[in-house]
Amino acid sequence: MFVGIDLGTSAIKAVLVDDSQAVVGSQSHPLTISSPHDGWNEQDPHDWWVATLAVLDALAAAHPQQMSQVRGIGLSGQQHGAVLLDAAGEVLRPCILWNDVRATAECAEFERRFPRSRQVCGNVAMPGFTAPKLIWVARHEPEIFAATRHVLLPKAWLRYRLTGEMIEDMSDASGTLWLDVGHRRWSDDAIAACGLTRHAMPALVEGTAPAGRLHDMLARRWDMKTLPVLAGSAGDNAAGAVGLGAVRAGSAFLSLGTSGVLWVTTDRFRPHPQGGIHAFCHAVPRMWHQMGVTLSAASSLAWWSRTTGVTETALLAELPPQVTRPSPVIFLPYLSGERTPHNDGTIRGVFAGLSSGTTRAEMTQAVLEGVAFSFRDVVDVLAEAGSHLTQADVIGGGSRSRLWISILASVTGLSLHRLAHGEQGGSFGAARLARLAATGEAVDSVCLPPQRVETVSPDAALAAAYATPLARYRALYPAVRDAMRVSAPSMVSP
C-alpha cells in the first residue's frame, strides 16, 4: 500500500493506493488563503499540518487494515512558496504563495544581481518564483530575513514535519530560481543573489529516490507496521505528469485547475525564457519539461460564481451543451496577473464588449473562452520553443465540464483527451513516486497512462469563428496594461 499527499492551494488531499494501482480511499481537507493586500496571497504552514493529520487520520479510520500496510508515502506540492524557518526550525512568517505578485520589482533586481539567471535557471524571473520573494523579505521585513536559516518549499516543509529531514526534489527545486536546471544542482551564484548561502537550502534528490522515513510516533498514530519511506516526490505539475504516465518525451497534458498549465515532457533541458515558458526538471531522472502557465484558470469561473452568487454548476447550466458561436463579450482572466506569455504581475482582468443587452450566460461563456484564449497563447509560445503540440490529456477540476473542454479544443487547435480519472491529479502521482522509492521498480513499469474515455477534437467552423475574438483578446492586453499605468491626477485644493 502507498499513500500520496497533495498539498494544494485550496485543499490537502490524500489517496491510498494498492499494489494494483487502484485507489482504495481518498480524503481531503480544505485550506484558506489570506490576502492582506491586493496581489498578496499567503497561507500559514501550520494549517497544512493540521489538514495533513486530518486526512491521514480519516484514511486510517476508514481503511485501518490497508493503512497498516503502507510502505511508502509521496508528496505533491504547490510550487514556489517560501517557508522561512529560524535556527530552531520554527516558521517565521506565513508562506508567500505561488500566485503572490508582491515581488514584481525584485525580479529585475534578481536578474541584475545574477545576469546569467535565465541561462542557468531556464526561466525569466517572475514574482511567483521563490527567489524574488526572499529579496522582497530582505527589503521589507529585514528582521525576518536576518532570522532566516532555512528556506523550504511547501511540500519540503511538510516532509520536514513528517520525517525531520530537509530534502527537496529536482522538479520543485526548479521553481525556486536557485537551481542549475540543466545540471540538476543548486546554483551558488543564484542563491547568493538573494543574500543566502547553500546552507539555507535543503538536500536535493530525484523524485523517485528515498528521502527520509516517517517519524515513529506518526507511524504508531496510524498503526503502520513499518516506518514508510518518503519519496523525493514532486511539484504539483510534475506529480500530475507522473500520475498521467507523461514520463516520455512528447507526452503532453493540460491542467484546468486553480491555475492552468500546458505541459510537455522533454528529454533534455530546453529553456525558452523570453516567451515566459518554464523549463524545469521532471520528477523522474534524466527528464525535463516545458510548461506554460495561466494564473487564473478554473479560479476565474470560481471568481465569477462568487461575484454573481450563483454556483458554478448553475452558471454552466445556463449555457447550451455545445457552443456554436463565440460570446460577444471578451474576458481577460488576469485576476492575479499573468505568467505566459506576459510575465506581468500587475495586469488585472477585464470584461470588454458589454452592452445593455448582455446576458449573464454570455459573460459566463466569455469567462470560459478567456481562459481558452490564454491557453492558446501558451500553445503558440510552446511552438516557438520547439514543441509543436497537436493533442494533450486534460486533468483538473475544470475537466468535469465537457463544454469547457470543447471550447478549449476549438480555440487551441488541440485534440483533448478526457480521462477516466481526470481529477486524481498530484496525489495519485505522488503515490506512484512513493512506490518507486519503496520498491526500486522501473519508472516505465509503474507510470502507465490512464484510460482515455473520450477525445474532443477542434470544431473547424467554431475554430475559424474564434479568430476575431482571439485577435481582440490579444489587442486588449497592451491597452489594459497601458491604462493601468496611467497615474491618477493629484487632488489640489482650490
From TrEMBL:
Molecular function in Gene Ontology: ATP binding; D-xylulokinase activity
Gene Ontology biological process terms, A to Z: D-xylose metabolic process; xylulose catabolic process
Record-marked site positions (Important for activity): 6
Reaction(s) the record says it catalyses: D-xylulose + ATP = D-xylulose 5-phosphate + ADP + H(+)
Organism domain of life: Bacteria
Catalytic residue positions: 236
Binding residue positions for substrate: 79-80
InterPro entries: ATPase_NBD, Carb_kinase_FGGY, Carb_kinase_FGGY_CS, FGGY_C, FGGY_Carb_Kinase, FGGY_N, Xylulokinase
EC number: 2.7.1.17
Carbohydrate kinase FGGY C-terminal domain span: 253-437
Cited PROSITE patterns: FGGY_KINASES_1 (PS00933), FGGY_KINASES_2 (PS00445)
SUPFAM superfamilies associated with the record: Actin-like ATPase domain (SSF53067)
Ranges where the Carbohydrate kinase FGGY N-terminal domain occurs: 1-243
Keyword terms of this UniProt record: ATP-binding, Carbohydrate metabolism, Kinase, Nucleotide-binding, Transferase, Xylose metabolism
Biological role: Catalyzes the phosphorylation of D-xylulose to D-xylulose 5-phosphate.
Family: Belongs to the FGGY kinase family.
Name of this protein: Xylulose kinase
Lineage: Bacteria, Pseudomonadati, Pseudomonadota, Alphaproteobacteria, Acetobacterales
